[in-house]
Design brief:
Layout lengths: L1 E6 L13 E5 L4 E4 L5 H7 L7 E5 L5 H4 L2 H10 L7 E5 L3 H12 L12 E5 L5 E4 L2 E7 L9 E7 L2 E5 L8 H6 L4 E5 L13 H11 L4 E4 L3 H4 L8 E2 L5 E3 L1
Parallel strand pairs: 3-4, 4-5, 5-6, 10-11, 11-12, 12-13
Antiparallel strand pairs: 1-2, 1-14, 2-3, 7-8, 8-9, 9-10
The structure holds zinc ion.
Length: 244
C-alpha cells in the first residue's frame, strides 16, 4: 500500500502545514486516517479525489482530526456527487459529535437527504473491528477530548499500520506500535514535556520497547519544526508518499 501524508501539522497550521490526514491507497479500497478541519483544502491541493475514499478512520474528536468531516460529507453531496457508501469509524460518542459539528457549521446538514449511505461505526478501546477489509484495533491513549482518545492499529493486507493519535506518553503506545510495519507518531515538541501531547524525546526513549520496524514523526508544533533537522527519525511532510 501507499500512504500519503495529506496533512502533518498541529492544530494551528504551524509551519503552514495542514491538519492531520493520511491517505492510504490500496487495491482493496482506499481510506483516510483522520480528516482535520483543513483536509478538504489539502486534498484538493494534492489532487486526491474524495470519491476514491471508501472509509475514514478517526482517532479522536478534536477539530484538527475530525473537523473536516462536515465539509467532506457536504462535498460528497454537492460537488463530488458520491453514490457509493461512505464508512466513518470513530471513538465512542463519535456519531453525536459529528452531527453536532455538522449542525454548527451547516445548519440542517446532519439530517438532509443524501444520495449515498453514511455508515457510522463507533469503536471502543481494546475493540477490533473488521471494516471494509481492514482490521482496526483501538487503543486508548492519553489526550482529553470529551470522548476516549484512540491510537489506531490497522491490519492492512497483512501489514501493520499504527498511528498514535495525539497523546501524552503512555505505555499504551507500546502496545499500539509493537512490531508495526509503520508507526506514525506524534512529535509536537522536541523534548519539552507538554500535558496531553507527545515530545520526540519520549519516542526516542521508548523506541526499543516499541519495536516498530519504521517510525515516521508527525503533528509538529513550532518548537519541533525548528529542530526537525536534528531528528534521527523520518519526518512527515504534507504530500509525502511512502510505500508500506
Ligand atoms: Zn491534534
Amino acid at each position: 500500500m501507499k500512504l500519503q501524508f495529506i496533512g502533518s501539522g498541529d492544530a494551528f497550521g504551524s509551519g503552514g502545514r495542514f491538519n492531520t490526514c493520511f491517505y492510504v491507497d490500496r487495491s482493496g479500497g482506499n481510506f483516510l486516517i483522520d480528516c482535520g478541519a483543513s483536509s478538504m483544502v489539502a486534498m484538493r491541493q494534492q489532487g486526491i479525489a474524495p470519491n476514491s475514499i471508501e472509509t475514514i478512520f478517526i482517532s479522536h474528536l478534536h477539530g484538527d482530526h475530525f473537523g473536516g468531516l462536515p465539509f467532506f460529507i457536504l462535498d460528497a453531496q454537492f460537488y463530488s456527487k458520491r453514490r457509493e457508501p461512505l464508512t466513518l469509524v470513530g471513538p465512542p460518542g463519535f456519531e453525536q459529535r459529528l452531527m453536532e459539528a455538522m449542525e454548527v457549521f451547516f445548519t440542517g446538514s446532519s439530517t438532509a437527504a443524501r444520495k449515498f449511505d453514511t455508515v457510522i461505526h463507533e469503536i471502543a478501546p481494546d475493540q477490533t473491528l473488521e471494516i471494509n477489509g481492514v482490521a482496526v484495533m483501538a487503543v486508548e491513549v492519553n489526550h482529553a477530548c470529551g470522548a476516549p482518545p484512540l491510537g489506531l492499529r490497522l491490519d492492512v493486507d497483512g501489514k501493520i499500520l499504527a498511528y498514535s493519535g495525539d497523546s501524552e506518553w503512555t505505555d499504551a503506545l507500546i502496545t499500539l506500535g509493537r512490531d508495526a510495519d509503520l508507526f506514525i507518531v506524534e512529535a509536537l515538541t522536541y523534548e519539552r514535556k507538554i500535558s496531553q501531547h507527545l515530545d520526540y524525546a519520549s519516542v526516542l526513549e521508548n523506541e526499543d520497547r516499541i519495536g516498530a520496524k519504521r517510525i515516521i514523526l508527525t503533528h509538529f508544533g513550532p518548537d519541533m519544526l525548528a529542530r526537525l533537522g536534528d531528528a534521527g527519525h523520518e519526518v512527515a511532510e504534507d504530500g509525502k508518499v511512502v510505500e508500506v
